[in-house]
Amino acid sequence: MTTARDLGARLRHLRKARQLTLSGLASLSGVAVSTISKIENGALSPTLDRVLRLAEGLDLTIGQLIGDAESGNDSPNSRFVPSRHGDGIVIDTRNYVYRYLCAELTNKRMVPIHARIKASSIKEFGQLEKHGGEEFLIVMDGEIVVHSEFYAPVTLKRGESIYLDSTMGHAYVSAGDRDAEVFCICTEPQRIERTDEVQPPQPG
């Protein structure tokens, strides 16, 4: 299991490898300097929206940020990775316990997450979260309430699901007397190709 300290050490390594200061990464990601510092020191487990924003700031996919290595076999014919019970990278936050599955694939177009929902009310959850991409969630056990920025709350029971735009503020809270279990698939935010208007001369 990946701890907050493990993830923090990896984030610091990736930031320094790109010769970025804390303020530089904060500017690129939109995550506060103090928050990045806490994550790097293992004092804070980042929520999914912060993981995605930090990955985008580092010009990485989420798999490259939380995975075991930056490189991998990206041949289309090699993308066949079973995930066994207990596999994945676990990050325990205030509201959710995330288990990122198939994390060894670093350039996935979607992020599969098995999660346990800890918050039992929107007041306990706090501010709605938002990040790039879209997501699909299905309730595997228990009952949840989906709160969002633009729609009335929706209650989902076991076997029921929802699809939403992740750039809209949203929160999942458990509606029963125990933590709910869900499976979620998030798409990576669309990455904009960075090209210069004037291409440099090519050799030859």
From TrEMBL:
One GO cellular component term: cytosol
UniProt GO molecular function: DNA binding; DNA-binding transcription factor activity
UniProt-listed Gene3D superfamilies: Jelly Rolls, lambda repressor-like DNA-binding domains
UniProt keyword terms in alphabetical order: DNA-binding
The HTH cro/C1-type domain, residue ranges: 11-65
Key word Cytoplasm present: no
Name of the featured protein: Cupin domain-containing protein
Biological source species: Roseivivax halotolerans
